[in-house]
Amino acid sequence: MSLPFILFFVFAIVAVVGAILLIVAREPIHSALSLIMVMVALAALYLLLGAEFIAAVQIIVYAGAIMVLFVFVIMLLNAGVEERTNWSKIAKYAGLPLGIFLLFELAHWLARSAIGARIANGSEGTNGAVSTRALSEMLFQKYLFPFEATSILILIAILGALVLAKRDE
Amino acid sequence: MEFIAQHPVLVASLVKIAILMAVLMTILAYLSWFERKIIAHIQSRWGPYYVGAHGLLQPLADGIKFLFKEDLTPPASDKFVYTLAPFLALTLAITTLALIPFGPATVWIFGHETHLVVANVDIGLLFLFAITSLGVYGVALAGWSSNSKYSLLGGLRSSAQMISYEVSLTLSVVGVLLLAGTFNFNELVTSQQGYYLHFIPRWRIVPQFIGFLCYFTSAIAETNRAPFDLPEGEQELVGGFHTEYSSFKFAMFFMAEYANMVTVSCLATILFLGGWLSPFPDRWTAMQYLPAASLLALAVYLAYDTFAQMRGIARIQLAVVTALAAVLGLLCLLPAVMPVIQGPFWFTFKMGLLLFFYVWTRSTLPRLRYDQLMSFGWKLLLPVSLLNLVVTALWIVFPQLVNHG
Amino acid sequence: MLLLNYLWIILALPLAGAAINGLFGKNWPKRAVNSVAIGSVSLTLVAVAELVREFSQLAPAQIPWMRNYFPWITAGPFHVDFALQVDQLTVVMLLTVSFVGLLIHIYSTGYMEHEGGYYRFFSYLNLFMFFMLTLVLAANIVVMFVGWEGVGLCSYLLIGFWFLKKSAADAGKKAFIVTRMGDFGFTVGILLLFWTFRSVDFATIFSKVAENPTDIGVLTSICLLLFAGAIGKSAQLPLYVWLPDAMEGPTPVSALIHAATMVTAGVYMVARMNPLFSRAPIAMLAVAIVGTITAFYAATIGLVQTDIKKVLAYSTVSQLGYMFLGCGVGAYAAGIFHLMTHAFFKGLLFLAAGSVIHAMGGEQDMCQMGGLRKKIPVTYWTMFIATLAIAGFPPFAGFFSKDEILYSAYGGPFANKALYALGLAAAMLTSFYMFRLVFLTFFGSPRYDEHKVHVHESPKNMLVPLVILAILSTIGGWFAAPKFWGGQDYFHNFIGPVFAQADKLAPAAETTEEAAHVLEMQLSGVAVLVALIGFFVAWWFYIRKPKAPEDLAKSLRGPYTLLLNKYYADEIYLTLIVRPLLWLSTNVLWHVVDEGMIDGTVNGAAHVAREAGGELRKLQSGNARSYASWVVIGAVGVTVLLLGVWMRMAP
Amino acid sequence: MSAVPISYYLVLSAILFGLGVIAFVFKHNIITIYMAIELMLNAVNLAFVAFARAHKQLDGLVFVFFVIVVAAAESAVGLAIILTIAQNRQSLNVERVNQLKF
Questions:
Q1: Residues of chain C neighbouring D44 (CB-CB closer than 8 A)
Q2: pTM of the predicted protein model
Q3: Which CATH code of 3.40.50.300, 1.10.3720.10, 3.90.1740.10, 1.20.120.1200 fits the domain covering A1-83?
Q4: Domain D6-93 = CATH 2.40.50.140
Q5: Which of C625, C630, C636 minimises the CB distance to A101?
Q6: Which residues of A touch C622 (CB under 8 A)?
Q7: Is D24 exposed, middle or buried (0-12, 13-18, 19+ CB in 10 A)?
Q8: Which span out of C178-192, C507-521, C630-644 was modeled with the highest average pLDDT?
Q9: How confident is the model at residue B337 (pLDDT cuts 50, 70, 90)?
C-alpha cells in the first residue's frame, strides 16, 4: 500500500461521500458545500494524475468561481429546505432505479472490461507532471480556434445573463 | 515507522510547517500591535502602551480575552456552516503561506540542504490563486449561516467584492508571468536577478509598475481592507459578515484577515520586488552585515530606551527584548548563519514595507461607497490591468514579429 | 502588350457604362447619358483597335492568345476558369461588333431622343455590348455560354423595351422562350462535350480531338446539340419565329442585335467549333440543309410582307441561312465574311428603315409610303446602296461574300448541287423583295396623307452612321476579293489559320486552280444574272405596272395568302406545341400531379404529424423531473446497447 | 512509485457520474439540479484526465479545459434563468414550474 494508493482512496472516498451528501442534503447550501468538497477532491486526484494545471483551473474556476456563483444565488434567493413533492411518477418508479442501475452498470463495465484493463497497463511507467508549457502550446496552436470560439461563447453567456437578470422596469 | 523512513519528505515538511506556524502566529499576533501603533502615531496618539512596555504584551492580552469570552451561536443559525466558516477562512488563509519561499531555493543549514519553503510546487502561483479563490467561502458562508440581515448583506457584499477584484488581481499578475514565463516562485524570483546600469535591481516592479499598482490596489480590496473594507462597514451594517461571531471564531476571522495581508504582501514581494534578492550588488560584500547591524542597532536603541525611559516591570520586559535583539544580531554574525539569513531578512524587510503601506492607506483614505467600489473595480482597475497585459504581450511578441517576419 | 495582357479591359468598359447609366442615369440629362454610353463604347473600340495592333505583332505560334484570369468553377474534375482568348476569328468579330455597335449607339441618340427610359435603353445596349464581347472573347465554352445567355437576356429586355405595349412584352417573352429551346440543346451539348473531352477549354478540346479521333457518333450528336442552340439563337428553321416578332423593339435594337451581332452568334459558334463540325459530316450536312432551307423559306415569306421591318427581319433570317450554308459546306471563312458584310449592309438597312419610319412619323407599312426619294435623299441613297449590296451586285460587299458561299456550295469540298440551286433561288428572291421594298418605299406616288405626315430628313447623328455604313457596304467586299478580281483576299489569308484543321480535313478539290477560277467566274456571272432577274421582276411589278401585284395575288390566291400568313407557322406551332403543352400542364401537371400528388403528400404528412403529435404531446407533462427520467431511460438504453451488445461483438 | 491503475479512476468517475444522474432525477431544487449537472461534468472530466494520462496525450486535458469553460458559461446563464424563475414564481421546486406543457 504505497502513498499514491492511500491518497487516491482518501480522495476518492471524499469525492463519493461528497456526491452522496449532495443528494441527501435538504439544504441547497449543504449540497453546494458537498459539491465543492467533491471538486476539491477531484482536483487532488488530478494532481495525482500529474495534471497540475487542470487541477488548479478546476479549483480556480469550478470551486472558486462557478460554485461561488451558486452559493451566491442561494444566498440571494435565501433558498430554504427543498420540498420533496412526488408528482412525477415516472421519476419515482423508473428514473431513480434506472439511475442506480446505470451507476452500477458503468462501474461494473469499466472495472471489468478489456479496455479498462488495457488502460490500466497503459498507466504503468507514466510518471511526472504534464508541463504546463506543453499544454499551453497545444491549447494555443492545435486548439486555437475552439479556444477563440469558447471566448465568444463566454461573451454571449455574459450578455445573456445580463439580459435575463436585468429587472425590466 | 518504516513508512516514515520511506518518505523523509514528510518529516522535513512537518518540521517546516511547525516552524512556519510558530513564526506566523506570532507575526499575525504582533501585526495587530504593529497596525495599532502605526495608526496611533499617524494620528499622533500613543496607541497600546500600558500592557507591557510599548504595549508589547497587548496581543497576548487580546488573545487571552478572545479565548475566555463566551462563544455565542445564534439559535436561528445553521450550526454546521456557522462553525465551518471561520475554520475555512483561517485554514485557507494560512495554507497559502505554505507555498511562499522565504529564501533561496537551496540553502545549507548545518551541512545539509533544505528549501526555505514548505511546498515548492511547479505551478505555485496558480495554486496560490486557487486557494485564495476559495477564501470567498469563509466570508460568504459566515454571512449566510449566521442568519441575520447585517451578516447576509455583509457576506454578499464582500463575496461580490472579492470575486470582482480577484479578476483584476489575477490579470495584473499575468503581465509578470508573461515576462518570467513560469509559475514557479523560485524561478519567478531568480528571473529577477541582475541590475539595470549596474545598480538598479532588475525587479519586475520596474517594467510592470502599472501592474504593481493594479495588483496592490486589488489586493487591498481582495483582503477586505480599508479603504475597501465595506463588508465590516460599521456605519451601514454593524460588523459585516462577522457581526454574529464572538470570541475565538471572531479571532479566527481576524487572524485570517491578517494572514491574507501577509500572503498578499509576500506575493507582491516575490512577483514585483525580487523576493529575497538583496537590492545591492553582490560585490558590495559589506552589505552582508546589514541584518546583523540593523538588529544590533535596534538592540542599542532599546537598551537606551530601557535605561532612559522605562520604570518598574516594563524596564525588565524591555531588557529581555533588548537581550533578544542583541543575541539575534550576534547570531547573524556567525559565518554559518550569515548566508542563510540574507534571503529571509530582505524578504521580511520588503514584506514589512508593504504591510506598512497597508496600514498607511487604512489610516489615510476614507472608505468608498459600495457602487463606487464596484465601478472602480470593473470600470477602472480591470481595463487598466487588461491594457497593461496587452501592452506587455505586444512588448514580448514584437521582437519575434520583427525578426521572423 | 497592354491589352493583350489585360483583355478584361475590353469587357470592363461597356460593363462600366451599363452600370453607371443603369444605376445613376435615371435623373441625368440626356447629354450625360450619351457621353457615358457612347464614351464607353468608343473607348471599347479604341481598346479593340489597340488590341488588333498588338495582335498583329504576335508570332503565329502565340495564336490563339490565351489569358486566364481566375478559376471560376471547380467541382471535382469539372474546372472552369474565367479565361479569354484572342485569335483571328475573335479579332474579326471584335472589330465588327464594336464598330457597328458604336455606330448604332450614335444613331440611337437621335432615334430614341423622344423616348422615355432613355438611360435604361443605353444601359441595356452597353450591357449587350459587354455580353457580346464576352461571347466573342471566351476561351472556353462555359464563359461563351455566359455571353450567349447574356445577349439573350439583353435582347429580351430590349425587345420588350416598350413593355407597356402588350405585343412588345409578348415578343420579348417569345424570343426568350423560343431561344430557350435551342439553348437546352446547347447546354446538353456542353455537358456531352465535357463528358467526352473532360474539359471545356476550346484549345484543349481541339487538341484532343485532333490527336485521338473520337467516336463519330458522339461528335455528331455534340455538334447537332450545339447547332440546336445556334438554330435558336440565329433564328433558323424551325425556331426562327421569334425574330420577326422581335421587330417590336426599337429599330436600333433590331439593327444591332437582331441583324448585325447577336443573331450571328450561332454562326460564330459553329465557326469556332469548326474542328468538331468538320469531323462530323452528317452534322455539317444538317447545318447546310437547315441553312439553305431557311434561306429560301424566309425569302419566300419576305416576298409579300408589307411591314418594312418585317421584310428586313425575314431577309435577316434568310441571310443567316446563307451563313450557315457557308459553314455547312465547309467554307467557314466565307460564312464569317458574309457575317461581317451582312453586319454592315443589314445594319445599314435597318438604320435606314428606322430613318424612314422616323421620317414617316412611326409609319411602318410600305403600302402607306412611296415617293420618298426626293424627301429624304440621304436615307434613300444609303438604303439603295445597301440593297445593291444585299442583292449581290458587284462590286458591293454582299456580292463577294454571297457569291463565295454559293461557289463553295457548288464546287467546294462539301459541295452539294441541290443546296446550290436552292441558294441561288433564294438569292433571286432576295434581290426581288429588296428592290420591291425600295420601290414601294421611295418610288411611285405618295400613298400617304401629305397634310398629316410631313416627311423630314433625320438629324445628323442618325445620318452619319448611315453614310459610314454605306461606304463600308460598298467597299467592304474587297477585303476578300479573290485574286482574279485583282483583289488580295486579305480576309482569307488573315482568318485562314483558325480553320486550318477544317481545311486539312476537307477533301482536296479535284479541279485545278484556274479551272476553279473559271468556274467561280461563271458562277458569279450566274449569281449576278439571277440578281438582275430579281431586280427586273420587281421593277416590272412595282414601277411599270403597279396594278400587277394585286392581279397576281388574286390569280394565285392560295399561295399568296399562304405566304402572307407566313405559312401559318405561328398558328401551327400554337396548335401543335403550345396548346397541347398548356393542356398538359393545366390538366395533368397542375390538377393531377401538383394538387393531387404533391399537395396530397404534404398534407398527408402534416396530417400524420398532427395526429401523432396529438398522442405524443401527452408525454409533455411540464414536469422537468419526468423529462429527466426520460433522459435517463434513454441513456440506460444506449449504454446497455453499447456496452452489453456492441462491446461483446467487438473483438 | 507505482501508479494507481487508470481503471480505478474510471470506475470512480463512473460512480460519480451515476450519483450525478441520480441527483439529477432525485433533487427538486432547480439549483441543486444544476449542481447535479456540474457533478456529472466533473465525473466526465475525471475520465478525460485519466484517459489523457493513459494515452500520454494532452488533448484530454485540453478537453477538460474546454468543458470547464463551457460549464462556466452555462452556469452563468442558467443561474440567471433560475433568478428570473424564482422571481416570477416564488418557488424553486422544479415540479412547481410546470406551466410549459401541452
A1: none
A2: 0.60
A3: 1.20.120.1200
A4: no
A5: C636
A6: none
A7: buried
A8: C178-192
A9: confident
